[in-house]
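Q: How would the structure tokens look for this protein?
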Amino acid sequence: MLVNRARSEGLRLSGEGGLLQQLTKRVLESALEGEIADHVGYDKHDAAGKNSGNSRNGRGGKTVLTDVGSVEVKVPRDVAGTFEPQIVQQRRLTGVDEMVLSLSAKGLTHGEIAAHLAEVYGAQVSKQTISTITDKVMDGMAEWQNRPLDRVYPVVFIDAVNVKIRDGQVTNRPIYLALAVTVEGHRDILGIWAGTEDGEGAKHWLRVLTELKNRGVEDVLMLICDGLKGLPQAVEAVWPRTVVQTCVIHLLRNSFRYAARQDWDKIVKALKPVYTAPMAEAAEERFLEFTESWGTKYPAIVKLWSDAWAEFVPFLAFDVEIRKVICATNAIESVNARIRKAVRARGHFPTEAAALKCVYMALMSLDPTGKGRKRWIMRGQQLNP
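A: Here is the predicted structure in token form.
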């Protein structure tokens, strides 16, 4: 009958008020009538319902989000107020789930998502329902975190974003991210790992790198990081030929911790000849000059650079164009910016798993098409813009 009406009235197939929406409305309302009949124990207008202890009590309107748009349905009610229709919950179709995940990945809290859906679509979606939807990503996250990887990566970057986790009390905890450049020139996010408040050592990094090796990574030409404790030793054990490069930007920033604010510009100017030297030997000469000028006032800066020297100098063996890529973890900073935006909106997380879920959804929201900021690959997952 709806099809005949659509033909006679020129009704559209899709869109607001279209045939598909009306069909969806009829299916949903028929299913709801079946549910209320099962709940109260009698069919509509059946005399068996008289004095049964519970009975129908009219209907109320509710907007349900579906793949064909928002559909207004009449939901039956009972006198006892115990009827909870399941079909409406089941009609959280793919489009709704994707909308919730997308909003969550952009940093909205569950309460903000519920308010947004109510305001824009008139749909009542509880915070518990939203939590249930976002929990679905955990299975996908486990699959993604264990997917096979390439045999060789020219460059791998490892960096951390700090999140607040309530474990008795709120503490800062790092979430580590590994991003690789593939031999084709794409960027592949290899995985994420939670760290501890006190920092990690060689044992932790040996476990992480062994995991990557077991997933197929036989060799990495160069690994760039922020002087993470124990990482060079772990790299030596897992990939003996890999060159470890300390991020020069982080080395400069760490130097400021030991210098007065009014000397920061002078420190940068004095260290620039060191990290822009044409070769390692020239860098060592410039560093000796820096030590003579600033070593007495800031011995901690001299020690910082001396301790990191073996991991600082490798990039100086390359051409200037390549140096720009491998001397810092800048390649991963735009990813970290997306993550920070998402975690800041949450304040703190009740568990480590909740923090990892938020970070993972933020990564899922990166544009993989090449039409946005960068071309990203997160193999094993379908990403949403």
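The CA atoms of residues 41 and 281 lie 89 Å apart.

Residues 2-140 form one domain.

Upvote if useful.
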